[in-house]
Every structure is written in C-alpha cells, then in structure tokens.
Amino acid sequence: GRPLPPLLFWQKAPPARLLDSEQQVVSVANQVLYELGAPPVEGLLDILSGGPDVFATLPELDHYPHRGGGDFVGPIYALGRGEAVRWPARGALRVFAYLKPDYGALEALLTVLRQLDASVLVHIPGVSRRLVEKFSGDNLAISRQPLDIEEVRQSCDLAVLHAGLSTVAALLLAGKPVLLFPQQLEQTMCARSGDALGAAVAIPEAAAGQFPRLVKRALADGSLRAKAEEFAARHRGYDQATAIR
C-alpha cells in the first residue's frame, strides 16, 4: 500500500507518522535517482512493482500474514549436510537447539535446557570453550559444527530456535513443535506467525527471568505437537526441489 505498512504490523501506528517516514525515504531516494539520471518514484510501493512476486515460504509462515495472496513456492533449507547426530544418553525427550553465541540470554536459556529431564543437543556456531565446559553434561552436548538437519528433525521431539524462517519451516514440516527465542525484528515476525499457528511458542529475550516457567509450560503443552503434526500433514507433499526449480 501507500504508505507501506509498518514492520510491527501488530502494533497500531499513526497514519501521519507512516506517511512522514515514507516521504523522508522517498525524498532521499529521489535525490539519488536524479543524480543517476533515473526517473523519480512517487512512493516505496513503486520500488516493489514491475515483476511477479514469488515467496519462498508457506502462507502460514508468511512474515506478513495479511498479505492477501501471492505465489508461495515454499521454503528452501539445507538438508543432508552437517555432522552426524549423537544424542546424549540421559533423557527420554529429545530437544534440539540451534542458538547464536551473541544471544543476550544465552546462558539463561542453556541453564534451563540443562535442567530439563531431556537429552539436549545444542548447535552454537563459534561458541566459547568456557560455555561448552560450563554447560556440557550427561544430558546436554554442545556442537560448534552444523548438524545434519534432516537427521535432527526426524529424531528430535522439539526444537529451540531463534526463529529463522528456513530452520523453523524444516522442523514444522517434520511435525515437530518449536520454542522460538527471536533476536531481531524479522525473527520476531516469523515467531508471531508460528505462535499464531499453534505449533510454536514465542518467548522474548526480555522474559529471560521467566525462561524456566515458560519453557516447562510449553513442554507440557501437548497441543503444540498436535498442531505441528497438522501443519506437516497439510504440506506432506512439499518438496523443496520443486521450490528451487
């Protein structure tokens, strides 16, 4: 639309503020276009026009759930790559976590995961040796190297992620529920879509003090797995090779 809708679409934004923001961006853009000898644009909508729109996601995981149509070819993710999965011996429930070392509440989240009655496998690229030594145990293993997501999603019971679209989609398409801890705005948007789907629980970093209660409550919620399995069943024929083609 014109002006473009706010990224925080779930919050009410004053129309005048949206229009003013867009006018400022358009003004700068048109100065550059003038210097390049290119025609000006009337609004940011013009930048997005001129060709077909193809969305590499599924409608339920669209960052803009009120988009109203589009060519959804499905998500693209890497399968069959990474190291073999070796689950810790202790714990019947298998929890996979893919976290980033710069996540502000990383230690608080690892503390909760270590205290679960579960076998927990965590991939943290570039994690410090100190954290590996501090949190590794008979029920929690930390890998710096990427793990085989295909093997992970088939063998885990639940995943803990930052809400990057491709990994979230890969797990949900395998019928596995996810706990989402977004780090930035795009992940927050994806987390809200997963939460609305009923197959995910979105937990903000600001709630670090509530992680033990929120994670345990989510693990006890059987509806998460049911909704994830429903999602997987709806898209059982999905093949990312088709999306790539």
Structure description:
It is a single chain. With 245 residues, the chain is α/β, with parallel strands linked by helices. It has ten helices and eight strands. The chain has helices spanning 15-35, 44-47, 106-115, 129-135, 149-155, 165-172, 185-197, 211-219, 222-234, 240-244; strands spanning 54-55, 71-72, 93-98, 118-123, 140-143, 158-161, 178-180, 200-202. The model has no long low-confidence stretch (mean pLDDT 92).
Which features does this protein show?
245 residues; six-stranded parallel β-sheet; two-stranded parallel sheet; 8 strands; alpha/beta; single chain
Layout of helices and strands, plus pairs?
Elements: H1 15-35, H2 44-47, E1 54-55, E2 71-72, E3 93-98, H3 106-115, E4 118-123, H4 129-135, E5 140-143, H5 149-155, E6 158-161, H6 165-172, E7 178-180, H7 185-197, E8 200-202, H8 211-219, H9 222-234, H10 240-244
Parallel strand pairs: 1-2, 3-4, 3-6, 4-5, 6-7, 7-8
